[in-house]
Each structure stands twice: as C-alpha cells, then as structure tokens.
Amino acid sequence: MKLIEIIISILIGLMSSACGAPVSSGSGSNTSDVMEVSQMEIIIDVNDNKLTAALADSTAAKELAEKLKAEPVTVTLNEYGGFEKVGDLPWSLTKTDEQLSTEPCDIMLYQGNQMTIFYNSNSWSYTKLGHIENTTQEELKALFGEGDVTVTLSLK
Fold this sequence. Notes:
Elements: H1 2-15, E1 41-46, E2 49-55, H2 59-70, E3 73-80, E4 84-88, E5 98-101, E6 106-110, E7 114-118, E8 123-132, H3 137-144, E9 149-155
Antiparallel strand pairs: 1-2, 1-9, 2-8, 3-4, 3-9, 4-7, 5-8, 6-7, 6-8
C-alpha cells in the first residue's frame, strides 16, 4: 500500500507546473555545519521584482548563503537553449553534480562557478542550489524576458 502512495505522490509532483514545489535535498548534501540552510531563503531581485527561493540542502547552497551573508551579489544571466538563464558567479562553489531533470524555477550550480535558473525543463549534471517559490513558469518567463537579464541575490 505504501508503494502506491509513494507513486501517486511522485506523479502529483510531476504534474505540477507551478514553481512553488518544495526543494528536495538530493544526494549532494553535506552534514558539516557551514550554515544551516533547511529553512534559509534568498531573495532574487529581477527587474525590480523580488522572488524568494528556498535553498537546497547542499554544500554549494550553504556556501552561497555564507557568501551572501557578507554582501549581495549581482549576476548577469544569459539566455541559453530556450529553457534557462545562466551566468557566471564571482566565485566557485563546491559542486556535487548528479544527473538531474530540472523543473521550472529550479536554481542549479553548473561547472562550479555558474548559476542557472530554469524557466523550462532540462536533464543534465548539476548541483542543486534552490528553488524559486510561489511563482509560476509563465510569471518567471515574463520577468526574465527575452535575452540577458541582471539579477541581484541577497540573503533573506
């Protein structure tokens, strides 16, 4: 009976197109206490709109939160592939890449020094950083617009 409940739960999660899904921890978690991020959130300021993202339970997300404690960071995100915006971070973070299928509003670390925000889906090897909450795929696409966009990340 429990297996059926798990399968139904997975299917319901896959059918959701909203960006408010909870962040899964993934296997890239680290038990060292760089910073407790289980309830930590960041603010993503894009075109004078503030989005809230829950941080993943990963070493890279903990390091990102530590960096943002010192000061906000601005990143230029470039359009890539019609499904994501990607930009260089000013520093590298610990990557614990695993093959993942992304969903809209996922925030991933790519190659250790690039941040990717997805407004559509993709499958590749990433380290999970977080997930934008309470925003639909359509809202995110409208906020990002066409081409490059500049975002400022800060700790909530």
